[in-house]
Design goal:
about 350 residues; alpha/beta; seven-stranded mixed β-sheet; four-stranded parallel β-sheet; 10 helices; about 35% helix; binds 6-O-phosphono-beta-D-fructofuranose
């Protein structure tokens, strides 16, 4: 392995720069390889000349490990297999992307991406016969084949901090605070942050909620003598028989969001409580990565380079039981990896008497 390509793809998150650093350090110091950073994910590979820059140890000035975002840039729209053609249709531009990779003369490619990006990169690698290794990242933590993705821990810490800040003001004003967090297909952030942040109600996409169950729980909280309550809801939470709240931007793209307002409105109407809604949004994606995300990103970066160097490509690294491992991309189930409703966190939440929206 002489020349290794590296790109980030999909929505950014904290810890991507730590992973980039780990890949470069391992490739350069461990194998004497050259690393080419591809800019703006697959979009950079469609440009001519290809948008890329060499990554060497000199670029790591000491702060990169701590920085949010991705120094390579990324895109979470524009699947090359169905790329918007500017005329309202779509065209397959995968051949251009593969030509771009060939132009760079890469021996292997490491792609850091979420569930959607991993599917695209896996398909590209198959089509182009390209040695590829995937590293999972996404605050949503829903990539199959790993217990934890880069970015998730930081997002949970941010959501817990928000609950920590909301609780005293809720108590002061005798309010119900609703916190809406991200989680497009899976409720991992809401569930973990809700437990750690002392929420009374946690609403996740995996369990369509019954508004009556939510208000019954809040009535219990009041009967127990507490003057305030905390509700956390994933952006894709929806009521039984209802729909996920979205808004469509002027370009026609639908974005999740609004679930918190709906839940808050239902609570206010049913209980007469003074309700306030906070939408955490992209605050969860930015910021300094937590120590866990830095550790995970570093471990994934080293493991991915070792795989590429050993010729063990067509695989994705993952985290299980306190260690890295890897899985053949072909053996990975299609995502998303949703919350296990019989798993430890769901059991813990129920064991604490937290309402998950169904009872
Ligand atoms: O998939 C990660 C994620 O942060 C989701 O939780 C969220 O719905 C989405 O990305 C937001 O995407 P965008 O950055 O395009 O608004």
């Amino acid at each position: 392995m002489k020349r290794l390509g590296l790109l980030t793809s999909g929505g950014d998150c904290a810890g991507l720069n730590a992973a980039i650093r780990a890949v470069v350090k391992r490739a350069v110091t461990g194998y004497g390889a050259e690393v080419i950073g591809i800019l703006q994910g697959t979009r950079g590979l469609m440009e001519r000349p290809v948008k890329a820059r060499p990554l060497d140890l000199a670029i790591f000035t000491g702060d990169i490990l701590r920085q949010g975002g991705t120094m390579l840039g990324t895109v979470n729209k524009g699947n090359p297999f169905s790329f918007p053609d500017g005329k309202g249709g779509q065209s397959d531009r995968s051949a251009e992307v593969l030509d771009g990779i060939r132009e760079l003369g890469l021996d292997a490619l490491i792609g850091i991406g979420g569930d959607g990006s991993m599917r695209i990169l896996k398909r590209l690698a198959g089509q182009g016969n390209l040695p590829f290794v995937g590293i999972p990242k996404t605050i949503d933590n829903d990539v199959p084949g790993t217990e934890m993705c880069i970015g998730y821990h930081t997002a949970v810490a941010t959501a817990v901090e928000a609950l920590d800040r909301l609780q005293p003001t809720a108590a002061s004003h005798q309010r119900v605070m609703v916190l809406e967090v991200m989680g497009r297909d899976a409720g991992h952030i809401a569930l973990a942050a809700g437990i750690a942040g002392g929420a009374d109600v946690i609403l996740i996409p995996e369990i369509p909620y019954d508004p009556a169950a939510v208000t019954a729980k809040l009535a219990t909280v009041a009967q127990e003598g507490r003057n305030h309550a905390l509700v956390i809801c994933a952006e894709a939470a929806k009521p039984v028989g209802g729909h996920i709240e979205t808004r469509v931007d002027p370009g026609g793209t639908a974005h999740y969001g609004g679930a918190g307002q709906v839940v808050g409105g239902e609570i206010a109407k049913a209980t007469g409580a003074d309700v306030r809604v906070t939408v955490l949004g992209h605050v969860q994606r930015g910021g300094m990565p937590t120590s866990i995300d830095r550790l995970l990103a570093s471990a994934f970066g080293v493991h991915a380079v070792d795989l590429a160097a050993a010729g063990r490509t067509g695989r994705m690294v993952g985290w299980q039981g306190g260690d890295t491992f890897d899985t053949a991309l072909k053996d990975l189930p299609d995502g998303p990896r949703c919350v296990d409703l019989e798993g430890s966190q769901a059991r813990t939440a129920r064991g604490l008497g937290i309402c998950l929206g169904d009872r």
